[in-house]
Amino acid sequence: MARAQAIAKLNQVQKFATRHRNRCKVCGRSRAYYRDFELCRLCLRNFALRGEIPGVIKASW
Question: Which of 16, 32, 38, 49 has its CA 20 to 30 Å from the CA of residue 6?
Answer without folding.
Answer: 49
